[in-house]
Amino acid sequence: MKCFLGIFGFVLAMISSVAFAATSEGYGMGGGMYKFQPVIDEANRSGELFRIKGHCQSACTTFLGIRNVCVERGARLLFHAGHDNKRNISAYWTDRIMSAYNAPLRQYLVAGRYMETLAFHTISGAAMIDRFGYRECPRL
Question: Quick one: which of 60, 44, 42, 135 has its CA closest to 97?
């Protein structure tokens, strides 16, 4: 009985930690890095699972650089060049954003020249997992 209760407690703790994981919700429309960097820093400090879910564009995609990130298959990530607050394309901000991505994704975005324009290029969560090697989020 003690063994069963111990296993039950462990499973319950695991489910709770997944259910209460931090997410990209509320950040999906992007914005300035000043809004995203504290979230990234806290997620990396805590080591807690961070879920990218739903619509995630622009600076929201920098969450891909979180140490314990996962991507939901149904997510949609939208990429474009980094820019300043006047919407002038900026090599500095583009490089800053790209530094959050793994090598296969960076190579794909550079090869397709998707990070040279402000036009959005959408990649599904399924492709982020299957093609670019990001971890799939556990099902809730």
Answer: 60
